[in-house]
Amino acid sequence: MSSHGARVQSLRRPTSAAVVMLVCMACAGSPSSPSTKGQWGGDHASLTVGDAAGHIEFDCAHGDFSGAIATASFSLAGSFVREHGGPIREGEPLDTHPATYDGSIRGSSMTLTVRLTDTSETVGTFSLTRGSMGRIVKCL
Q1: 2, 75, 94, 110: which one has the fewest Cβ atoms less than 10 Å from its Cβ?
Q2: pTM of the predicted model as reported, rounded to 2 decimal places
């Protein structure tokens, strides 16, 4: 092999290794899914998402779910509590229902559908935006 050929071959090895190393570093640095923690809001809903649970306030209701939103599409079990205007009487039972929170996330937008599992009622579908507090008006 000529000295010119040996020089070309020795230059190829580090270049190939550098490309492989850069690809590996890029893959290692990218998360498998973006974080969904934080505040999400929209018309008639304000959702706070934590590591393993979420709390949502509606105009005349509130709800909670357990489990992490770990993928772009999710379905989580929780509860939904209807509220009413005026004072809550001592000993008055809460109007609590088991519920599912089904959603999908695309970028900074979330679509969330709330269904009561004991009555099969769909409470509603809400469009939420990451970082927004939402616009809710509580019952008076």
Answers
A1: 2
A2: 0.75
